[in-house]
Amino acid sequence: MIKSKKEIVAMLLAGGRGSRLRELTINMAKPAIHFGGKYRLIDFTLSNCCNSGINTVGVLTQYNPLELNYYIGIGSDWHIHRPNGTVTILPPYAGLKGGRWYKGTANAIYENIDFVDRYEPEYVLILSGDHIYKMDYYSLLEYHKKKGSLVTIAATRVAWDQTNRFGIMNIDNNNKIYEFEEKAKNATSNLASMGVYIFNWKLLKKYLIEDDKNPNSSNDFGNDIIPKMLEDRLDIFAYEFKEYWRDVGTVESLWKANMDLLKENSKLNLYDNNWNIYSKLYNHPPHYVGETGKVNSSILSEGCIIHGEVQNSVLSPRVYIGKHSKVIDSVIMPNVIIKDNVILERVIVMEHVVVKSGTIIKNRNDKIFIVKDT
């Protein structure tokens, strides 16, 4: 086996089904979901890797991987596939033990120990492919080294009523973690794991092998690996991230993250030339706003044709909006046709949907309505 030594290798977990996104993930994995008009969720993590100078990335896929695999390809659109860098798709495979699904996040890395070992890294960076944020992973690595940490967990403050969705940690004055609980019911802190970890590879490999031998383990980082390391009194530190970060695990959080982009001083700046968010390039014509078209505080992607009114909405590529139609506070996925005399408010329209003339959906509830057919 040819080896190419790297200081750090990134392993991007992209196999989640995302069942709380309901109909949006019926035919594709959660990281492939469209976001912000021209992007998909996984674009942010891959772009972070590129901008951070991390050019060896394994992408672990599982649920409905076809669309995601095609989209990523060899990673050239994210400027990672270069002479000294690569993106490698790592689906579950049949080995000596037969074929099986990844049993958990830790098991997914365990099953790909050989892939990591071929680069002989000192560190491994574990990432999720379905979060919206911009982070310099190199700064995270420098922090890891400065602290003399064996494990570093990127963390952010979340609303107290959301703590049961995350791994919650308590830290001392030096940011050393002394307590970690996955999806705590009665949290004593609101400092949540972002699902971004740096491990010293030799140490992690040892724990992964031991974890695989434990029949009572769920083979998960938050439930098993991190608690066991804390039990063994290892030096584990939190890296508190204070910039924009969203876990878009629900339809409502996906909608809200899209709406965040429309704020005049959005905390997630997509127009920063020093930290580009890359995506797969398609050859679409420019968008067009007709004589009767009106657009206010919205994102229009390439190929859109607007003859109606768009207010505070995000339109993906090749969306058509007919005359006398109104789209308000909504997210429209690619290749949608909205015919004449339609009103849509606070909805997400799935891709390839044709919304019939005269359709009126004025959703005023906190629960966002998904339009899949009319």
Automatic annotation (TrEMBL):
InterPro entries: ADP-Glc_PPase, ADP_Glu_pyroP_CS, GlgC_bac, GlmU/GlgC-like_hexapep, NTP_transferase_dom, Nucleotide-diphossugar_trans, Trimer_LpxA-like_sf
Domain called Nucleotidyl transferase: residue spans: 10-263
Annotated EC: 2.7.7.27
Residues of the site described as Could play a key role in the communication between the regulatory and the substrate sites: 62, 101
Pfam families: Hexapep_GlmU, NTP_transferase
Catalysed reactions, as listed in the record: alpha-D-glucose 1-phosphate + ATP + H(+) = ADP-alpha-D-glucose + diphosphate
Pathway as given in its UniProt record: Glycan biosynthesis; glycogen biosynthesis
Gene3D superfamilies from the UniProt entry: Hexapeptide repeat proteins, Spore Coat Polysaccharide Biosynthesis Protein SpsA, Chain A
UniProtKB keywords: ATP-binding, Carbohydrate metabolism, Glycogen biosynthesis, Glycogen metabolism, Nucleotide-binding, Nucleotidyltransferase, Transferase
Positions in coiled-coil regions: none
Signal peptide positions on this chain: none
Positions of transmembrane segments: none
MF-aspect GO terms: glucose-1-phosphate adenylyltransferase activity
HAMAP family documented for this protein: GlgC
Quaternary assembly: Homotetramer.
NCBIfam families (UniProt xref): glgC, PRK05293.1
Family: Belongs to the bacterial/plant glucose-1-phosphate adenylyltransferase family.
Function of the molecule: Involved in the biosynthesis of ADP-glucose, a building block required for the elongation reactions to produce glycogen. Catalyzes the reaction between ATP and alpha-D-glucose 1-phosphate (G1P) to produce pyrophosphate and ADP-Glc.
Name assigned to this protein: Glucose-1-phosphate adenylyltransferase
Species assigned in the record: Tepidibacter hydrothermalis
Lineage, top ranks: Bacteria, Bacillati, Bacillota, Clostridia, Peptostreptococcales
